[in-house]
Amino acid sequence: MKFTLKEGLLLGSATAATQIEGGDENNNWARFAAEGKIHDHTSPTRAADHYARWREDIDLMAKMGLKIYRLGVEWSRIEPARGEFCAEALAHYREELEYMISLGIRPLLTLHHFTNPLWFEDMGAWECKESPDIFMEFAERVVSEYCDIVSEYITINEPNVYALNSLYWGTWPPERKSMGSLMRAFGNMTAAHIRCYNMIHEKRAALGFSKEQTLVSFANHLRVFAPKSRRNIFHRISARLSEYLFQSAITKAMMTGKCRIPVRRVKGVKRGKYYDFIGINYYSRSTVSGLDDGVREDSFKNDLGWEIYHEGLIELSNRLSKRYGREYPVFITENGTCDNSDSFRPRFIYDQLKMISETDNRIERYYHWSFMDNFEWREGESARFGIVHINYETQERTVKDSGRLYSSIISNGGVTDEAYEKYVAPRSYHE
Ligand code: BGC
């Protein structure tokens, strides 16, 4: 064996509804695509056609041995107009959830993953004062439908990436560039998460489940911020400030209800502990010399130019455990890389899992992003993150070498010499 998986570490994958399902025009990303805003002119209305092919995909997941699966529901399908819930969509997800559970795959359900129904988007989405109430109407309905069979939830995916891209940098819909908008959205998302955390626990308790039988948190997008030059005090200050503004402030607010700039305090938010695990989405390190997002020149990079820096995941996991309590397990709710030809992904998976398995940390779950190639937001279909290849023209699924390696790691409890020689040894990163 090249290495044995850390004891108790469960492996699976993650996806998001809008990125894989196809067929839904009622959300802000479908409209953004129709306006010609996606770099490669593709649209989430096609994606991987998972809404129709879910059974085939879950069968494949089970065949590959995945034990856990983080998936999302599409809000605009479930609540196509405010207060109108679609029984068919609710039944659809229930069938899919029951099916994966029957095959031994444990779901972790995400309620909000970047996309908004058009009616919500057009009333100001997360900027609007009523947004926590509106989100709760949807969340309560979804949780009521599934909480007898689903015990694990992510309330909101990456509030920082959503709010910064959509409302501060203006690169995502609705392309706003306003500090006030950002602060309002951060405040409202924090309030929604906290209310949702309590609501899920209440609903599960009403069914007789103990507190420990329910796991709720949010998926935090964390980066490592390093100064371009350690000797330069401005670079060092920039790194600290970027980290605070990008992730530390919102993390603290969501997890504990302590709101400080840039998170606007919303009435009714009380201090507490609003997490049952520490959820980390990790992709890269930023090397900064100002409030920017630079990349180290002499580093290995993925196909989107993001630095490959596996140590970052361990550093962040340890930092959050120290800050928020070592008694909480860490779930890597996303980790993966854009490698369009699967030329280095097997090595990426090998290196990351080896590091998780051989270092001291509290990581108990690893959800690889992503199960299949999908609609990568502004990059569209061109940026491939899957361990399963999607031919978008025919919708044919083909397991990549990275998928074969992943599957063999699960079935062998680590990387065998043979798997290493076959999948990892011939692969290398590029600068
Ligand atoms: C998001 C995913 C996205 C992935 C890769 C994360 O920030 O949650 O939706 O596809 O990163 O960019």
Task: Describe, in short, the structure shown.
The chain has 431 residues and is α/β, with parallel strands linked by helices. It has helices at 17-20, 28-34, 50-63, 75-78, 87-102, 118-121, 131-146, 159-168, 179-206, 233-256, 311-324, 345-358, 401-412, 417-424; strands at 3-4, 10-14, 68-72, 106-112, 152-157, 215-227, 278-288, 330-335, 363-369, 388-391, 396-399, 414-415. Helix 8 runs antiparallel to helix 9 (179-206), helix 12 packs parallel to helix 13 and helix 13 (401-412) runs antiparallel to helix 14.
What's the alpha carbon Rg, rounded to whole Å? 20 Å
The beta-strand count equals 12
Large-scale geometry: globular
Q: Tell me what portion of residues adopts beta-strand conformation.
A: 15-25%
Instruction: Identify the bound ligands.
Output: beta-D-glucopyranose
Q: Determine the number of helices (DSSP H or I, runs of at least 4 residues).
A: 14
Overall number of structural domains: 1
- Identify the CATH class: Alpha Beta
Query: Largest beta sheet: what is the strand line-up?
Result: 2-3-4-5-6-7-8-9
Determine the CATH superfamily.
Answer: Glycosidases
Largest sheet: 8 strands, parallel, barrel
**Average residue-wise pLDDT:** 97
Q: Percentage of helical residues?
A: 40-55%
Distance between the termini: 29 Å
CATH topology: TIM Barrel
